[in-house]
Amino acid sequence: MRHRLLGRTGLRVSELFFGAMSFYEHHGDEATRRYRAMLDAYAEAGGNVIDTASAYGESESVLGDLLIGRRDRFVLASKYTISRDQADPNAAGSHRKNLVLSLEQSLRRLRTDYLDLYWVHLWDRHTPIEETMRALDDAVRAGKILYVGISDAPAWLVSRADLLAEWRGWTPFAAVQVPYNLLRRDAERELLPMAETLGLSVAAWGPLAGGVLSGKFSAPDGIVPGVQTRIDADDLTARDHAMARAVLTVADGLGARPAQIALAWIRARHAAVHPIIGAGSVEQLTENLGAVDVVLPDDALRTLESAVEFERGFPADFLAQCEADPWVFGRTPVTGRV
What we know:
By secondary structure, the protein is α/β, with parallel strands linked by helices. It has one domain: Alpha-Beta Barrel (TIM Barrel), CATH 3.20.20. Helix content is about 40%, strand content about 15%. The chain has helices at about 30-45, 60-65, 95-110, 130-140, 155-170, 190-200, 240-255, 260-270, 280-290, 300-305, 315-325, 325-330; strands at about 5, 10-15, 15-20, 50, 75-80, 115-120, 145-150, 175-180, 200-205, 275. Helix 7 (about 240-255) crosses helix 8. The longest helix has 17 residues, at about 240-255. The two termini are about 30 Å apart.
């Protein structure tokens, strides 16, 4: 597995991130063995980024046990914002108090004295972004976190936050986390162009659309052994089925698995996007890791991208039309900066 730089930093991160959301059973020998085997398989493939969160049940505590003796070999990421105690109004949000208490809780659970990457889990509309950025910077200066990112937030907010950080000498966001897959390409409207312009890495959650793109629902009997999904067959729409069939067609043509095709498309579409892969078994994880060796030819990309309708909408499509119209910018083509 190849490695890239995280945003505008010197931190090396693997092409695929490992999502530990499924590590929810803290007790039980069988579960522990399964989790350890999955983490070992990911590391042996060259992966080094583990993504968890304070809100993922026992995931942090499970990882704390599994990483004893090898914690520093991984880029360990966690998140805060989601409530730690629903009866306490200050146990949720992106304000300083919740950041401090959530971070301390995560460090204890993970048995470490620092996090490599700390995500704001989602936009808290009630906390000024200035307060969040300053509190994150204080934690960086204290050595408790090394880099910061934000998940599930609008592009304008991320841009404003990074500009504030630049002006005031605070730590800027190095990465954003967004939902992104063949069925959900909304991020192409504003978030991915913003990330590219600001030099941010992108972590893509839900790259298999809850299992729709895994091939599970495309099998003749509707069952693929070992494939864990987060959606029921009855919930699928005609659009879901159309894309699942397209993925299966491309997979059959290339001798690959459907999940590998869906992940390979993300990697081919945007170089700075890192799919977050999760799994319920070593076999499923190994299959997903195989996506790094899949190269999609142009005809495969066309098949996938034409399977269902997607429009970026205004202003992206409008501005693209203007760019091509000689009435707007003249007849001399502009190819960009050298």
